[in-house]
Amino acid sequence: MSMNDDATSGTVENSLLESKTEKKDKTKSKKKSKKHKHKKKHGKHKSSDSDRKALYHTSESKGSSKFSKKFYENELARLQIELVKMQYWVKHTGTRIVILFEGRDAAGKGGTIKRITEPLNPRGCRIVALGTPSDREKTEWYFQRYVAHLPAAGEIVCFDRSWYNRAGVEHVMGFCTDEQYEEFMQTCPEFERMLVRSGIILLKYWFSVSDEEQERRFQARTTDPARRWKLSPMDLESRDRWVEYSKAKDVMFARTNIPEAPWFTVEADDKKRARLNCISHFLSKIPYVDMTPEPLELPPRKSAPSGYVRPPLNEQFFVPQKY
Fold first, then answer.
1. d(CA 301, CA 292)
2. CATH node for 68-284
3. In the chain, what are the domain boundaries?
4. What pTM does this model have?
């Protein structure tokens, strides 16, 4: 072998050694990069968990800006389409659904009910919001006036406050006797078991709102003419009876949280999150399948009879076109 060959051989060996070294360095750097990414990813995961917890308990005044309006509207639209699919299934199968909405004043029950019912056919979905019982109704069996509003086959009924008035406002404000209250606590679970055994799907939601957020909403209502009607004398009285209402709710949960119809608490300090969470949970409890009819093909429209003459416009009253 010549000197040139030795030199060439040495050059090749050196290049191979350098290549192996570079590969080792790259492998080490990749491992370090993976470890770094794993730590970074793990750190992000922890951060997202804490952020999620913080948002979960955030109030409308402090955290609603973190919840994208666009995401809320898109998600609400998606859920409302699912509600329409669910209603088709309810009508087809003859299912009967009762949803009770209870909770603190200004907790957002009405807003959630509105978002549930607005895309649905009102002939198959009703809102029941009963007022103060009449003198005659006060002498009836307590559940009697609520029974009259229970759904028939293919119907959904949303109770904006329900028979649980007796366990809450009536008990706290002294509108019922201790005997009537105790009778309700004993018979309510039996009544609800009867409903479930009859085939009714019964869901009970309690909207939980903090003292601070409730006060903020009360104050907002005092300055908003469009919402001032929501401040009833009972609402104002409840501001000074926060603890009494809390105790009444605790007893109510303990004695009426039955397996056949358990209570579900909705964290409602952020109204938008509460609406989405409640609707999503409601849909998850109904074993519906998509029974939306196929798109309709409208036949050609028939032409108007040739002999028809429209009455003169000056003989009719029209709404002024101010807009």
1. 25
2. 3.40.50.300
3. 68-284
4. 0.77
Find where tokens 């949280």 sit.
Answer: 257
Residue 56: the pLDDT is 45
CA 101 to chain centre: 11
Q: How far apart are CA 103 and CA 249, in angstroms?
A: 9
Alpha-carbon dihedral sign for residues 61, 67, 73, 78: negative
Residue with tokens 């009537």: 180
Q: Which residues contact 304 (CB under 8 A, 6 or more apart)?
A: none
DSSP state, residue 9:
H
Judge residue 300's burial from the number of C-beta atoms within 10 Å of its C-beta, 0-12 exposed, 13-18 middle, 19 or more buried.
exposed
282 phi, psi to nearest 5 deg? -55, -45
**Residue in the structure block whose two tokens are 């199968």:** 93
- Placement of tokens 């076109």 in the chain: 321
CA 76 to chain CA centroid, Å, is 9
Rounded to whole angstroms, how far apart are CA atoms 104 and 248? 12
pLDDT, tens digit, 9 for 90 and up, residues 253-305? 999 999 999 999 999 999 999 999 999 999 999 999 999 999 999 999 888 88
Q: How far apart are the first and last CA of the chain?
A: 102
Query: Which residues does 91 contact at the CB level (< 8 Å), separation at least 6?
Result: 124, 154
